[in-house]
Amino acid sequence: MTGRRLLWVLAAISIPLGFALLEDPTLTTVVNRAVGGSFIVCGLIVWQHRPDTRTGALMTLTGFLYLGGQVLGALDWPPAHTVGEAFAVVWLAAFGAVVLGYPSGRLVGFDRVLVGAWIFGTLVWQLVWMLFLPGDENVLAVWPDAELADTIDTAQRTFNTTVGATVAVVGIHRWLRAAPALRQLLLPLLAGVAAVIVLAVQSYYRLITGEFMRPTQELTAFVLFLVPLAFLVGMLRAQLARAGMADLIVALQRAPDTQQLGAVLARTLRDPSLELVYWLPGFETYIDEDGRPCPPPADGRVLTPIEHDGEPVAALVHDAALTYEPELLALVCAAADVALAHTRLVQELTRSRVRLVEAGDEARRKIERDLHDGAQQRLVSLAIALRLTEDRLKEDPDAAASLVAAAREELKASLEELRELARGIHPAVLEHGLATALNSLAVRSPTPARVTVELDEPLPEAVELALYFVASEGLANVAKYAQAHEAEIHVTRAGDVVVIEVADDGIGGADGAHGSGLRGLADRVEAFGGRLRVTSPPGGGTRLHAELPCDASVASSR
Amino acid sequence: MRVVIADDSLLVREGIASLLRRAGFDVVAEAADGDEAVALVDAHMPDIAIVDIRMPPTHTDEGLRAAHAIRARHPDVAIVILSQHVEAGIAMRLLAETPQRLGYLLKDRVTEIEEFAASLRRVAGGGSALDPKVFERLLAAQRDDGPLGALSAREREVLALVAEGLSNRAIGERLDITEGGVQKHVRAVFTKLGLATGDDAHRRVLAVLTYLSPDGRR
């Protein structure tokens, strides 16, 4: 912050100084002198508004290098003049970085090579040249040799011009490769390229003819003066694109379904070709909306993964030009992640609701089956037996008596079955308290079970019922799978949470495979905002651990 | 009259067999599931097969499948399907497929052995037997102000028995009126409901059920 303020002060001094040192003010020289100021002022504004990019800083640097070279070069004091001359053209390298790095100001790959080459060509080579450049004002002139200096100068210009031409080609290529919608965003890049081209043409002309190309020299000054303005406008417009994030959030709220999500993201990033693809964990690949595997992105397109807790969940396949807006891209990815997470939660909730309903249907089906095959069947045979008895009462009283005895047995069995069935539907014993209910579960358990209930006050009925079913399913699993000698049920309260544990000393190794029961329990527990955990190391017994909020409002609000 | 019984509950099967033997039927074989029922019918060629609707292995509609198989192989064998609870939908489907020599009764009916025996004989004689519960259910779903409301109490009784599959003579015996009297009632009922009068008892059943079913009227 203060650094930038200092730069403003420095600009306020050096820019007027530059004009003051101007010897023959013509339109061209004034504009040429204003180029540095233009870069500095625009750069500082960009820097302030887009501190997330390096473009502002690079523009400011370009401006100071440009202006500094001119000001120092205009001073009569030889050391200052020498420094000015040494730094006269290095601004080109900074400018190249601005152009190639636009809009992020970050250089990657070949861009770095180009900028590095230009630093070499404009600074190192310049210093070498000055070692041989004769003149009183050049304190670096160790071996004055006009001819050699001239040769070095020509080679240096040729090199720098070639680098400049390459920069122009790379810039144009980048612009052409961008999606049409993004070309607008990259217009300043084109302006920068135009400036580089003008400089290159001018330089070639001089290399070939040995003379300055007057009209282009004037044109250069104007173009260079205007380029920072183009960058400034472009960067502030990009900031507007970031303001589009606000619209994105609103749009996501309205359209959380995944089909529209891609379209909304494409609009925000102004890349109509943008695609949202989904990560398929088992297959380690991305798939599109229709489930087709997504091929590796073609040239000019980039895949940016969207991660959730470090795991890929989806990705954006988009125009490579967007990587120049990494922060915007990151924001959009974050927003997409939130939207996808929301969708996932809704889906999970829907699935768990469906499972609860299905579990209810299944339970009713089982009750019907039990009634049909059990009590109903017995009662029918009982009715038949009584009918047969009725016929035999007179003619064969002994046979009738044995029929009645059989009927009584049948009736007892029916009653027992009905009792079991009723308990499965709703454990009436819960009305006598959770501890009593759990104890009576333990008594019926084939594996001896111990029950400890540490509760000061009764819990809401629904919570007690959930605890009862956890214990019941837990003990049933112990009996079925655990091969345990004994089991233990422990209920305790920790603040607003009631914890139930069903542990055994059996073989462990339970994996959710025998788990439609466990899944159903988990759904039941999660419906109360609770959690169910199963720890079952092989050989280490199985521990079913469920936590439920005890507060009744949670229980009744499901 | 030769009978094959199929029911997965041994007690029920034996009970029904005892009752039927005492009522003069010749129970020639007993099956515990659908496939066995088909095989035993093949082997014994009874006059009638009594089949429980739910049997192993799935306890859903094995009895219906067995009935279909038996009907396809031996169209002359009468079939009575027994069920713990009767569904009007199943009754409609069965009768629409083959109304002749077909019965669909609540399992409890076997204890009213005289009526049960009468139903078996009726079915074996080419008619149909439908549990009164089916008619009751369908009737309960009717609006009071429809054409049914215009029926007299006696006409309703007659309609119920028509729906069970009874012939005019059987209805007359049941209500203790002459066959001619029954015919008059039936004609009056069918005219009021706008149904075509037929003489086949089983066709009348279907006509009545179709008329009463929620989706039968156009």
Give structural notes.
The complex is a heterodimer of chains A (558) and B (218). Chain A is α+β, with helices and mostly antiparallel strands and 558 residues long. Chain A has 4 domains: 2-240, Rhopdopsin 7-helix transmembrane proteins (Up-down Bundle); 256-350, no CATH class; 364-425, Single alpha-helices involved in coiled-coils or other helix-helix interfaces (Up-down Bundle), CATH 1.20.5; 429-556, Heat Shock Protein 90 (2-Layer Sandwich), CATH 3.30.565.10. Chain A is built from 17 helices and 9 strands. The longest helix of chain A is centred in the middle third of the chain and has 70 residues, at 326-395. By secondary structure, chain B is α/β, with parallel strands linked by helices. Chain B folds into 2 domains: 2-130, 3-Layer(aba) Sandwich (Rossmann fold); 135-212, Arc Repressor Mutant, subunit A, CATH 1.10.10. Chain B has helices at 10-22, 34-44, 62-73, 88-97, 113-124, 132-140, 153-164, 168-175, 179-193, 201-212, and strands spanning 2-6, 26-31, 48-52, 78-83, 102-106, 128-130. A 6-stranded parallel beta sheet of chain B has the order 2-1-3-4-5-6, sandwiched between helices. The chains are: A alpha+beta (558), B alpha/beta (218). Chains A and B meet through helix 12 of A and helix 1 of B.
Mean pLDDT over all positions of chain A: 84
Helical fraction of chain B: 40-55%
**Given the C-alpha coordinates, what overall shape of chain B results?**
globular
Relative strand content of chain A: 5-15%
| Strand residue percentage of chain B | 5-15%
Low-confidence stretches of chain A: 553-558
What is the CATH H-level superfamily of the largest domain in chain B? Response regulator
Whole-number tally of structural domains of chain A: 4
Radius of gyration of chain B: 17 Å
Please count the helical segments of chain A.
Answer: 17
User: Which bin fits the share of residues in helices of chain A?
Assistant: 55-70%
CATH topology of the largest domain in chain A, what is it called?
Rhopdopsin 7-helix transmembrane proteins
End-to-end separation of chain A: 53 Å
CATH class placement of the largest domain in chain B: Alpha Beta
CATH architecture of the largest domain in chain B: 3-Layer(aba) Sandwich
In CATH, what is the class of the largest domain in chain A?
Answer: Mainly Alpha
**How many structural domains can be distinguished in the coordinates of chain B?**
2
Shape of chain A: rod-shaped
Domain Histidine kinase/HSP90-like ATPase (chain A): 462-552
InterPro entries (chain A): HATPase_C_sf, HATPase_dom, Sensor_HK_TwoCompSys, Sig_transdc_His_kin_sub3_dim/P
GO molecular function (chain A): ATP binding; phosphorelay sensor kinase activity; protein dimerization activity
GO cellular component, one term (chain A): membrane
